[in-house]
Amino acid sequence: MILDEYEQDLLDAIKGTDNFEQVDNFEEELLVAKMAAKNYLNKTKNINIRIAERDMLMLKRKSAKANIPYQTILSSLVHQFVEDKITLKI
């Protein structure tokens, strides 16, 4: 993993110390850090795409049948593709 200068400075500072002191409000700080990490990893981006009208109608029909929003299905398909869990047949 490539670290920027600030991240490398933080890593060096951590490696350079032998003892840590726990803050008084450790549980609260831990919760804040966990929430920040979760929010960072769950960022979404709005996009506009063109889809054939027939495909969109079929997608909406299938999503209604599965009781899953069609946007969720599209997002899941994109995620599975970028994670190499599904491939395109060309």
From TrEMBL:
Domain of life the protein comes from: Bacteria
Protein name: Antitoxin
Organism: Candidatus Thiodubiliella endoseptemdiera
Lineage: Bacteria, Pseudomonadati, Pseudomonadota, Gammaproteobacteria, Candidatus Pseudothioglobaceae
